[in-house]
Amino acid sequence: MKIEKTAIEGLLILTPSIFYDDRGYFFESYNQNKFKELGITENFVQDNQSCSAKGVVRGLHFQKPPHAQAKLVRVIKGSVLDVAVDLRRNSQTYGQHVSVLLSEENQLQFFIPVGFAHGFTALQDETIFCYKCSNFYDKTSEGSIRFDDPILNIDWGNKDFIVNEKDIVGENFADFKTVF
User: Fold this and answer.
1) Higher model confidence: residue 168 or residue 108?
2) What is the pLDDT of residue 159?
3) Domains in the chain, please, with CATH?
């Protein structure tokens, strides 16, 4: 597995070693020992999966302590523009974000540590998105920042969004008080 650091400390892009033959391909998407060697020591306790139509935006979500979550995300089918926003109070990159194209073709994975808001937009119909979480979901700990916040100025790649009410009513970043 190849690891690539991003402009924001802690956010990592992972490229698995893929083995192709006449049957197709094989790769390890997760191996706890290998991830520990790469410096990712989170104990993932929950796997989630979603299927989205083209234009769906999910996010920007996070879980507040003590239920904060690190995530390891990837796409099984289709493609997304995946975004992580730094919410760590003492970080030099507070309020900045990294965007990564994740697809079934590139098989990239994106590691998002605790202290980030996360979201994505599906770039194709029937996009299947999977993620591992380092803590169990707790409804009372969920938080949300508007995906279209003008201060964050995230380029989602299109303007024809399909967004649910929870994401429309997320906090404005200007009013946000970080808990990280």
Assistant:
1) 108
2) 80
3) 43-175 (2.60.120.10)
What residues act catalytically?
61, 131
What is the value of pTM for the model shown? 0.96
11, 40 Cβ separation under 8 angstroms: no
